[in-house]
Amino acid sequence: MPGYLALPSVSRGSVSFSLWVQKACPLPGPVIQNPHQLVALSAVPPGQSMEVTVPTTLNVLNGTNARLPCTFNSCYTVNHKQFSLNWTYQGCSNCSEEMFLQFRMKIINLKLERFGDRVEFSGNPSKYDASVTLKNVHLEDQGIYNCYIMNPPDRHRGHGKISLQVLMEEPPERDSTVAVIVGASVGGFLAVVILVLMVVKCVRRKKEQKLSTDDLKTEEEGKTDGEGNADDGTK
Questions:
Q1: Which pLDDT band holds residue 193 (cuts at 50, 70, 90)?
Q2: Less crowded by CB within 10 Å, the N or C end of the chain?
């Protein structure tokens, strides 16, 4: 039985039977490589292997192409005769869903009036990738995109939700000049402070050495004077 492990046979009188347990075998599928994107995983009951990975929010510039990533993990190899995929669109979280693309043994583009011919399947189910590309993004395309995946014998359907935000202009680049100037200033100040501390330490050390030398000379002179007085007294 695929996806399960057989335990040793158990005997009860003249009856023997085997126990089957589902094995935990998360198959590594594609993952999102951008570390700055937040990732949402589909919630599935414990013991189930289906897991869908999508970015929770996707910012796209108006008029450009947007790839809506949707990848999944499964214990089972994808069988195109059983695998199913649905992509839906929602104008808001409480709005009804409109299906615009599905997979039933092949890709079926429903060509909603909203999208026309601008939707293209850009994934590969055999590689656990169910992504789509939306061409020439319009401001009206902003909303929620749902990716539903079913890969039997997995019994639970995976679900990923993407919030697409359409930008009218590129966000301004951060000017790093100020940061560089501040960093250089702080670094220079710290270097000066360290240099001053080293100079002060050296000066103190020299003074301590000089004081030690003077004390040693004073002690030697005192001993010499004491010996001279003793000789005079003997005479």
A1: confident
A2: C
